[in-house]
């Protein structure tokens, strides 16, 4: 049911872990299954993503999509990172089974949440970036979500 690329990224995830003193951190929950994803971005003074790491309490498809998404944003500038949508990630993985499409949203949303955090900390505006709906901040109670 999974493509070779999905299996590869699931079995050998790239960029798993965390970044201390990251420029931006985003944590999101998947409304459909309750799984959680956190992305850490290290962004330099030229707004280039120098490093990116992720952690997830999610399924195999979430691991694979996050792994691929981190590969796609690494080395890009923040504007280019905005173009890494869940669709782009799925294409890069040669597709996902329809029931697993929602899993790929976690990576996109977590990247956006981390970019939002970075933008807030630096007082900048990133075109097309909206305040994340489901950002969960460390130490805060997880909000009740309406499904
Ligand atoms: Fe929850 Fe895939 S089932 S992220």
Structural class: alpha+beta
**What name is given to the CATH topology?**
Sufe protein. Chain: A
Question: Which consecutive residue ranges, at least 5 long each, have pLDDT under 50?
Answer: 138-147
Order of strands, main sheet, comes to 1-2-3
**Describe the biggest sheet?**
3 strands, antiparallel
Query: Which geometry do the CA atoms define?
Result: globular
Number of domains: 1
Bound small molecules, by name, code or SMILES, are: FE2/S2 (inorganic) cluster
Number of helices: 5
Number of strands: 3
CATH architectural label: Alpha-Beta Complex
Helix content: 25-40%
Q: In terms of quaternary structure, what is this? A: single chain
Give the rounded overall mean pLDDT: 90
- Residues in β-strands, percent: 15-25%
Per CATH, the class reads: Alpha Beta
Organism: Faecalicatena fissicatena
Protein name: Fe-S cluster assembly scaffold protein NifU
Domain NIF system FeS cluster assembly NifU N-terminal: 1-122
Pfam families: NifU_N
Folded structure, characterized:
The chain has 147 residues and is α+β, with helices and mostly antiparallel strands. The chain has a single domain, classed as Sufe protein. Chain: A (Alpha-Beta Complex), CATH 3.90.1010. It is 36% helix and 16% strand. The chain has five helices and three strands. It has helices at residues 4-11, 60-73, 78-81, 86-92, 103-122, and strands at residues 24-29, 36-43, 49-57. It has a three-stranded antiparallel beta sheet. A hairpin with a 5-residue loop joins strand 2 and strand 3 (49-57). The longest helix is centred in the C-terminal third of the chain and has 20 residues, at 103-122. Residues 138-147 have low confidence and may be disordered. It binds FE2/S2 (inorganic) cluster. FE2/S2 (inorganic) cluster (FES) is lined by residues 30, 33, 35, 58-59, 61-62, 103, 106. Pfam families: NifU_N. InterPro entries: NIF_FeS_clus_asmbl_NifU-like (IPR017787), NIF_FeS_clus_asmbl_NifU_N (IPR002871). This is Fe-S cluster assembly scaffold protein NifU.
